[in-house]
Design brief:
Layout: E1 2-5, E2 10-13, H1 16-21, E3 35-42, E4 52-60, E5 66-73, H2 77-82, H3 88-96, H4 99-105, H5 110-121, H6 125-128, E6 138-142, H7 145-155, E7 163-169, H8 170-180, H9 196-215
The structure holds magnesium ion (MG).
């Protein structure tokens, strides 16, 4: 290979022999981060003001098989309720689904919850690095999971380093289906129970469906 050129614009020129030997550069895709499903239940919609009642995380493999689950109900959020800052309809929802009762029985406070989450995220730390260093990043997955992510980072900003900036949002697939597959009949998924773990399992079911439809 020689570089020829004039004063204006040097060019890279290959001989015929070299051209025949060229192979297309192999496209290497980075291995994807593992999926980490996230769902939370909160006292409201504002991550700066409202509190987390419950957080659940589920690790799945690339075939969407469940590997590991974490569910935490926070006891200290109940104090927020007693301050009268929670809307009646939210309270009623969490009375009906049992979350308020579980919060009353829970002794887990925010700081302890954070460490439970870090342990869950770094459970293979001994092979890969220090407990204090994130050993891997996760791609967050869920239904409109940007909402859940915003709350988690508002409450525990230190967890940010565990999460890739990309997300897998099953709500996106539903929204696109509504627009571009108008005659498409979607399965009847159960209504959300507004409980973190069961909502995650519902989201995984929805993604399993779309995976079959879109990726065979
Ligand atoms: Mg939920």
């Amino acid at each position: 290979m020689k570089i020829f050129g004039n004063d204006e614009a040097p060019k890279l020129v290959f001989s015929e022999q070299e051209l025949s030997e060229l192979e297309p550069e192999q496209v290497k895709l980075d291995a994807p981060h593992p999926l980490l499903w996230l769902d939370i239940e909160t006292t409201g919609l504002d991550p700066r003001e409202d509190q987390i009642f419950e957080v659940a995380m589920v690790k799945t493999d690339d075939d969407l098989n469940v590997l590991e689950e974490l569910q935490i109900v926070l006891g200290d959020t109940l104090e927020w309720v007693t301050l009268g800052k929670v809307k009646p309809e939210v309270l009623k929802m969490h009375v009906d689904n049992g979350l308020l009762l579980e919060a009353r029985a829970s002794s887990v406070r925010s700081e302890e919850a954070k460490w439970k989450i870090i342990k869950f995220l770094t459970d293979d730390y001994s092979q890969s690095g220090s407990f204090w260093e994130p050993v891997k990043k996760y791609t967050l997955a869920g239904s409109s999971v940007h909402f859940d992510k915003s709350f988690v980072l508002a409450k525990w900003p230190g967890l940010a380093s565990y999460f890739d900036y990309r997300i897998v949002d099953v709500s996106t697939l539903r929204e696109l289906g509504k627009r571009w597959l108008p005659a498409y009949s979607l399965p009847e998924w159960d209504e959300s129970e507004h409980r973190a773990l069961s909502d995650i399992h519902r989201s995984i079911e929805i993604l399993r469906f779309w995976r079959g439809e879109l990726y065979g």
